Amino acid sequence: xxxxxxxxxxxxxxxxxxxxxxxxxxxxxxxxxxxxxxxxxxxxxxxxxxxxxxxxxxxxxxxxxxxxxxxxxxxxxxxxxxxxxxxxxxxxxxxxxxxxxxxxxxxxxxxxxxxx
Length: 116
Fold this sequence. Notes:
Elements: E1 2-9, H1 12-20, H2 23-44, E2 48-54, E3 58-62, E4 65-69, E5 73-81, H3 84-89, H4 95-98, E6 104-109
Antiparallel strand pairs: 1-5, 1-6, 2-5, 3-4
């Protein structure tokens, strides 16, 4: 089995629209979304290596130093699958974009570290 990192992404515009939603409607959708999300996690069984979670504020570190930045990353999960395609298919119709304001999930294979 190969290991994959999946990143949940949402644009600032979609997030703003979600935040502007009527609070009662948003709260109901959040409750429905969390039920669906937990059901999705349970359905993955042993493929789910790390259930991940939401991501907070971002800092960037480079030659110029440390600074606060914004990006579209909203959360992550780590899973195992036979192939990259199989890992990607696990996210079809995911609550991240069927109930929540998420736009997409990007899945990358976690490659082994090469040693000399």
